Amino acid sequence: MTAPRTPDTDLQELLTQSRTPGSGPDNGPASRAALGYLVALIREGLDLGEQESVPVDLPIGDLGVDSLLALEIGDRIQQDTGVVLTAETLADQPTLTQLAERIAAELPSALPSERV
Fold this sequence. Notes:
By secondary structure, the protein is an all-alpha fold. It has helices at residues 7-18, 28-46, 67-81, 87-91, 96-110. The relative contact order is 0.19.
């Protein structure tokens, strides 16, 4: 049986992928890791079970993420990764896929040099 995915386990994968040479907006592994991390954050924030589907190509508001939860998720992303997602970015109702691509693109420069 596989251990449940959590934001912390997905964060570790994301940080590992971001250190891969050539990481950036077209880095599929980092984008996929960021997407897994975001899905885990959404599951946690909305108190969804592991079996419940989280569509990654719908605007976050359509997933049930209200403005307060969006800000909490943005704060958690900044705390965990150093990537800043402004309130305006989150208010524009991006999809999880769009957010994952942005995080993957910005993460290498957001990490402190001693962590890279």
